[in-house]
Amino acid sequence: MVSLTIDKINVSVNEGTTIMEAAASVGIAIPHLCYWKGLNEIAACRVCVVEVEGKERLITSCNNVVEEGMVVYTNSPKVRMDRRRTVQLILSQHDCKCATCVRSGNCSLQTIANDLNIQDVRFGERLEKQEWDKNFPLIRNSAKCIKCMRCIQVCDKIQSLNIWDLEGTGARSTVNVSGNRTINEADCSLCGQCITHCPVGALRERDDTKKLWKAIEDPTKTVVVQVAPAVRAAWGESLGLTREQATVGKIFDALKKMGVDYVFDTTFSADLTIMEEANEFIMRYTKGEFKDRPMFTSCCPGWIRFIKSQYPHLVRYLSTAKSPMQMFGATIKTYFAEKIGKKPEDIYTVAVMPCLAKKGEERNVGLYVDEYAGYDTDCVITTRELDRMIKTAHLLPALLKDIEPDSLMKDGSGAGVIFGATGGVMEAALRTAYFKLTGKNADPDAFKVVRAQCQESDVQEAELKINDITLRVAAVSGLGNTRKLLNKIERGEVHYDFVEVMACPGGCVGGGGQPIHDGYESAFERGKNLYFIDRGMDLRFSHENPDIQKLYADYMGEPCGHKAHHLLHTDHNAWTMPKAPERDRNGHPLGRNI
Amino acid sequence: MSRLEILTPTKAQLIVEDLYKNLERRITASPPGLCPVDITRAFIEMSHSQTCGKCVPCRVGLLQLKHMLTDVLNGDADMDTLDLIEDTAKSIMETADCAIGYEAARMVYRSITNCREDYEEHVKNRRCTCLTTQPVPCVAMCPAHVDVPGYIALVREGRYADAIRLIRKDNPFPTTCGFICEHPCEERCRRNMVDDAINIRGIKRVAADYAGKVPPPPCGAPTGKKIAVVGGGPSGLSAAYYLQLMGHEVTVYEMLPALGGMLRYGIPNYRLPKNRLDEDIEAILETGVKVNYGVKVGRDIKLDELRKEYDAVLITVGASTDKKLGIEGEDAEGVMSAVFFLRNVGMGKAESLEGKEVAIIGGGNVAMDAVRTAVRLGAKKVSCVYRRRTADMTALPAEIEGAMAEGVEMLTLKAPARIETENGKVKGIWVTPQMISKIKGGRASVVPTGDPDVFIPCEALIVAIGQNIETKHYEESGIPVERGKIVTLPNGGFKDIPGVFAGGDCASGPATVIKAVAAAKVMAANIDEYLGYKHEITCDVEIPDPNIDDHAACGRIELTEREACDRVKDFEGIENCMNKNEACQETGRCLRCDHFGFGIFKGGREKLW
Asked: Which of A14, A17, A19, A42 to mutate to test the interface with B (most CBs of B within 10 A)?
């Protein structure tokens, strides 16, 4: 143990504890901006400086550890003055038009400036101009970037894609897409983790709410919205609702109040995905296709972008099943359109997703049915955009009611709900595969070994005996973890039959489109919520979903049959991704100057 | 006011003088990889502040250059701007009245004509191609990328053996380098910005002296692959060490009776005591490297035979033969090359020079080794004959000073003309007086003064003007050789000769130990890949947290030497190590660039290769 005093309070902490953590242990919250525990401890913003008795220079508390007998002041006159000056310097290069910023009210810089009671910046404003393609799903506004480097770190360390880098030197050094590429040329997975780790409004999703409002206003359009499982686990966070209050039914109510015509729960098409994917797996497995490499899930568009750019030779092991979002879009524009007597082109399909990559998925593959040629999904909005729309429509969250989704595709199983958490797709698929192989249901919680154990869980693996078959499965989340797992598979160190991949750590609940909480990873907590919902449901097996059974009976025929294949499966070779740059042994892209 | 007054500098003048010194140190410690456009702009701005304001090209021209360079950096320029910058710089060079103007413009001109792509990237894409990837200057400057801040921190804590383990991750010659490394790591040390570079080599010496015997890490699982290394010098042994750690089976073919190459047979004992060299070699051999002594490839065994017998062959034969002056009388008795002179001494076969006059031709480190060895062999008078000035000598300044302290005469500005002989024996050398002249390729050239040749009498003449590489056998075996050097691909291999690699002095020409080690890492890694493996060389030593001291300016501790009058009497080591107090202060000066600054963000530590 190391003993020291912080603001005259005696503190005793373990050796190696940072000054910031030592202070927190006695209730002293040292202001900080760039710091993110374990991810970005680089002391770049200098906001967390403290004074140590006997030292002339201030030191950063986030990444310097306590020493025996240290006397620390976190709020001395020197600290106050320097911290204030530093924040003013940051503000001089930050576009402070907070009123029109998507992060207003949830901006760490705004909070610190307010807390320090900074009412003027004595330096001239010098904003950086950088060009950006505003049509790309990920938007960067360099005039707001405070160079905290978190985007670089999360992409390097967690997602292993190195999309961002600090480029240039001296006064003009700035964050930009690495290797002097544009974002369109980069192998960005669109996971959006850089957005959810940005302390300010420098990174955000392309806002598609205007597009959606326009469709709602268009009398010729029938607007049909689906809501993804993970959205229900997070949408209430920025609206002041508790986890119990923020039900999916209230989202449906809000959407209907905004003027949407039909609402559905993506849980339905998650069940549909399971029907297709479980059947596809059993077919391809029986044919011996997965002797060398496993079948990979295909629900996560961030993962699809990743495998295409990083491991193009493994694309053929992907399930051909469309993602639940795309399946739902296709079903709405065919089966549902037919049932309600509308033409596909008059239907506007919208998806509320926890995800940024879904915005990239929306235009990737077209839907061709009879004379109709269009897209499965016409518009994707993130959970954050949904919340903004609720605010724009000045709906009081507390007054929203629980309503059910519309009929024909109303039912969704608990298996579909857990699609939003890492391991969830695998678990749902195993519930159905077990039934397919044995003719009877397993205990619905029989496969919970594939669930994450904590926020830091990387790979969950299991070996399951079903009849005389031994299945080796794994679920991985986070693209850095995914890269490690794929490398192990490629080196032959591990072998699986079926692997679920989700690009965001913890799965969709931790998606890049979810509400943002600075310094805190929420995926595991949100995931627990989905498992809680699953446990409380009567319907827990995708194959028992009555509306799914009806869909096959009335329209699709057999799972993986001709029609299902045409509408619910996709050709992964129909589009390409920019290739990944070559990497050195430490994972850094090659071919740069020192 | 008096008619004349004694002027004393004002406070402002003194401060500005001080700022100049600060700036000088700052430039010394400039991080590698800065944007040439940005730096040029900064230089021109400073240069412009020196302008007196009398003449148009300097007063206005430099200002316009600065504006245009700023536009380029801000993305407000087009390709015409670049042409205008170049033309304007040229005009100022041609029209400015004094050096303040034309030399400033020359910097801009050189920058834009030589770094045109950087300028164009700013203009066309509004991007900069420069970025920091190795922010720790000492690590960046060390050819082998040794973790300098890491081992300095370990030495500070008295963890000497851990320091040796950490160094060996990148360099299996910690003791040797503690004595004789040319320490490029110190060149850009950030501590220069405060006071002076850290004495990094001295700290390495501390680690080596206090660590005791440190066993090498265990070898990886045996791969069954066999590798022959031709030549047991620093690069051959380093490669052997890493390949053995990876699990391969290495056999070194050494033509001489002991290992070490130039470290043993080139560098005199007083600089690198052989028992200390043996510490490094013993650790290398402990990994299980086998050695065939006295076998010369090309004479006793052919390269092709090795290729058949081994899965891979590495050629690290060094530059072990001499270069000739090409003047009359060179074959006379008493004329010898420094390479053979020093080798004989290293083998204990040296002849006494008692009472003789000895002249050495050359100004490099080998020349200094030769003169100081001659002194120790009892020569009456030792002269170092060099065509340029002392300042132009390529030897380390400390070596030149050491030689002078030991009584060596520096006969500079004298070019050898012919060797005077008598009965086939050397009698002396005629030299042509030179004067220093134009700077060509960054180096001052010499031309004859026109004065008559001067005679320097000597009974032994040692030629230290460089070394050559014995390439004949390799050339005959199909290895590409150009200008006396083996030409390899950047990975150390050859295009159409699978399984054969080469590196070290035989590919680079005579260089330093640390460059030989760096080449060995490249070759070991690529041989491993060639054999189908991806082994990792790592070190699990935990690096101590940095201290948070204020870093008040503090002088650099230099290693002391034995008194000159005493040390010339023997071949024992001349340099004294720091004591622990000194080591504690010197290591405490380290700014820990791996933790403070960019190092904590990116590139602070390469944990594996």
From this structure: A42
ipTM: 0.81
* Distance from C-alpha of B303 to C-alpha of B228, rounded to nearest angstrom: 10
Query: In degrees rounded to 5, what are phi and psi of residue A200?
Result: -130, -165
Joined together, the tokens standing for residue A490 give 């490629």
Task: Assess contact for A590 and A584: CB atoms under 8 A.
Answer: yes
Residues A453, A344: Cα–Cα separation, whole Å: 43
- Whether residue B193 lies within 8 A of chain A, CB to CB, comes out as no
Distance CA(B346)–CA(A547), nearest Å, equals: 91
- Residues of chain B under the 50 pLDDT cut: none
Helical H runs in A190-349? 193-196, 209-217, 248-258, 266-286, 301-310, 324-331, 337-340
Give how far Cα A357 sits from Cα of A146, A203, A319, A396, A468, Å. 25, 14, 18, 29, 39
pLDDT digits (tens, 9 = 90+) for A139-151: 999 999 999 999 9
Q: Does B292 touch chain A (CB under 8 A)?
A: no
Q: What is the pLDDT of residue A592?
A: 44
pTM assigned to the model: 0.89
DSSP string, B186-213: GTT-GGGGTSS---HHHHHHHHHHHH--
Closest residue to A42, CB basis, from B127, B549, B601:
B601
**Contact call for A592 and B550, based on CB within 8 A:** no
Q: Helix, strand, or coil here: A501?
A: strand
Residues A328, A269: Cα–Cα separation, whole Å: 5
Q: Computed from CA positions of residues B438, B441, B444, B449, in that sequence, does the dihedral angle turn out positive or negative?
A: negative
Instruction: Count other Cβ atoms within 10 Å, centred on residue B63.
Output: 14
pLDDT per residue over A96-107, tens digit each? Answer: 999 999 999 999
Q: Is B526 on the interface with A (CB under 8 A)?
A: no
CB–CB contact B548 A56 (8 Å): no
For residue B567, what are its two tokens? 């040390």
Sign of CA dihedral A220, A226, A231, A237: positive
Neighbours of B23 (CB within 10 A): 11
Task: Indicate the CATH number for domain A2-92.
Answer: 3.10.20.740
User: Mind telling me how many Å the CA of A384 is from chain B's nearest CA?
Assistant: 30
Asked whether residue A594 carries a pLDDT value surpassing 50, the answer given is: no
Which residues contact residue A482 at a Cβ distance below 8 angstroms, ignoring those fewer than 6 apart?
A303, A306, A476, A501, A503
Q: Which residues, in sequence order, are CB contacts of B113 under 8 Å at separation 6+? A: B86
pLDDT at residue A413, rounded to an integer: 96
């790979």: which residue's tokens? A459
- Is B42 within 8 Å of chain A by CB? yes
Q: Sort out which chain B residues have CB atoms less than 8 A from A166's CB and list them.
A: 131-132, 601-602
Delineate the domains of chain B, giving CATH numbers in brackets.
Answer: 34-125 (1.20.1440.230), 137-215+539-600 (1.10.1060), 226-320+469-530 (3.50.50.60), 322-466 (3.50.50.60)
pLDDT in tens, A11-26: 999 999 999 999 999 9
- In whole angstroms, give the CA distance from residue B399 to residue A196: 59
pLDDT > 80? residue A585: no
- Any idea which architecture A216-568 has in CATH? 3-Layer(aba) Sandwich (3.40)
Strands A295-296 and A203-205: unpaired
Q: With an 8 Å Cβ cutoff, are A168 and B134 in contact?
A: no
List the single residue in B125, B129, B595 with the smallest CB-CB distance to A593. Answer: B129
3-state SS of A108-174 is: HHHHHHHHCCCCCCCCCCCCCCCCCCCCCCEEECCCCCCCCCHHHHHHHHHCCCCCEEEECCHHHCE
Residues of A in contact with B545 (CB under 8 A): 16, 64-65
- Residue spans of the domains in chain A: they are 2-92, 216-568
pLDDT at A370 over 90: no
